[in-house]
Amino acid sequence: MHAQNTSCALSALGRCWSAAVFLISGAACLVAWNSTVGAADIAVPNGSFETPGTSFVDTRVNSWQKTPQPAWYDPAAFGYTWDQTSGVFANTAPGAVDHIDNCDGNQALFLFAFPQAGLFQDYASTDWSSSTPSHAFDAVFEVGMSYRLTVGIIGGPGLAEGADLVLGLYYRDSLNNLVNVGATDVRYSAASFPNSTHFNDYEVVVPAVQAGDAWAGQHIGIQITAGSMGNSYWDVDNVRLSQVPEPSSCVLLLGGLGGLWLARRRFHRPA
Ligand SMILES: [Ca+2]
After folding, report:
1. pLDDT of 14-39, one tens digit each?
2. Per residue in 137-167, pLDDT tens?
3. Residue 215 alpha carbon to ligand 1 centre in Å
4. Is the peptide bond before 157 cis (omega within 30 degrees of 0)?
5. 106 Cα to the center of ligand 1, angstroms
6. What letters, b where the CB count within 10 A reaches 16 and e where it falls short, cover 2-40?
């Protein structure tokens, strides 16, 4: 009788211990989850195209590297050097007919709608000021994190219907190719861009990085590239990048502990 009571007491203690582990783990997960959500913005150097400062336009764009001139492009035929296909510009004064009403800061980027015209930035990229990478943008794709790129876009007046602009998050493979992990094709229509004075946000979302992904631990790259001939230009501003911890690891842990707890209860339940 005494031995049976002792056994019952130990069984009850075991159930309490399992419940305590489950609850403590759950609480720890929730604390960790809440403490990280919303606190993971990644700074993008010159993501708002505020430098170099200009009162009109400047084809130099700090911190961003321009795509190389493609073989098909003939500056004489188009009347612009390849370098002139993108640059920073100053917003006009409030009240002006072409004033952008939600420009972040005072400047933004213009990009001609010429195929392959664009800019990119990663750990190994350069800008107009030096051929040596500054390594200022050093974020990497961390396992268990998902990534969100948000960019303000304006389609310029007269852009051809269907002209596109590609936003991408990439890594460099072993051959130094820029390989998109996620991309969004922004396609112009008069309906989706009813004016050229207000930025619309577009996003690229990369789901939680897995340990086996080729980009796990690799430096993050951002690219903004015109996809087709559009007979006009795009404006770009306020490039934002954030990382969000994948909650499924906590959910899986809680699910696993909950399963163990239930199994243990069933094991000790009298027949
Ligand atoms: Ca800006």
Report:
1. 444 444 444 444 444 444 444 445 54
2. 999 999 999 999 999 999 999 999 999 999 9
3. 29
4. no
5. 6
6. eeeeeeeeeeeeeeeebeeebeebeeebeeeeeeeeeeb
Averaged pLDDT of the chain: 86
Instruction: Give the tokens for residue 241.
Output: 């990048």
* CA–centroid distance, residue 179 to ligand 1 (Å): 27
In angstroms, what is the span from residue 218 Cα to ligand 1's centroid? 28
Q: What is the distance in A from the centroid of ligand 1 to the CA of 7? A: 71
Determine what percent of the chain is predicted with pLDDT higher than 70.
77
CA–centroid distance, 51 to ligand 1, in Å, is 9
Token pair belonging to 250? 């906590």
pTM: predicted TM-score of the whole model, two decimal places: 0.80
The CA R_g of the chain, rounded to the nearest whole Å, is 26
Q: What is the rounded distance in angstroms from the CA atom of residue 25 to the CA atom of residue 247? A: 14
Instruction: Pull the structure tokens for residue 1.
Output: 């009788």
